[in-house]
């Protein structure tokens, strides 16, 4: 299981970081691409993605589009 905290990012691009801590902010789309590229090569089992979503509706739509385009 993978767990991510998603927040509104700049330029309508959601970001992932552990809220209110000193973690590095990374783009949601980069994380989804990495999951797609590596998670299914190392294990025959499905991946469960737990999303703690703090994004606006507009950026939630961006997240949905990224996942649809990446995972199919």
TrEMBL record:
<dbReference type="InterPro" id="IPR001192">
    <property type="entry name" value="PI-PLC_fam"/>
</dbReference>
<dbReference type="InterPro" id="IPR017946">
    <property type="entry name" value="PLC-like_Pdiesterase_TIM-brl"/>
</dbReference>
<protein>
    <recommendedName>
        <fullName>Phosphatidylinositol-specific phospholipase C X domain-containing protein</fullName>
    </recommendedName>
</protein>
<dbReference type="GO" id="GO:0005886">
    <property type="term" value="C:plasma membrane"/>
</dbReference>
<dbReference type="GO" id="GO:0035556">
    <property type="term" value="P:intracellular signal transduction"/>
</dbReference>
<dbReference type="GO" id="GO:0006629">
    <property type="term" value="P:lipid metabolic process"/>
</dbReference>
<dbReference type="GO" id="GO:0004435">
    <property type="term" value="F:phosphatidylinositol-4,5-bisphosphate phospholipase C activity"/>
</dbReference>
<dbReference type="Pfam" id="PF00388">
    <property type="entry name" value="PI-PLC-X"/>
</dbReference>
<feature type="domain" description="Phosphatidylinositol-specific phospholipase C X">
    <location>
        <begin position="2"/>
        <end position="72"/>
    </location>
</feature>
<dbReference type="InterPro" id="IPR000909">
    <property type="entry name" value="PLipase_C_PInositol-sp_X_dom"/>
</dbReference>
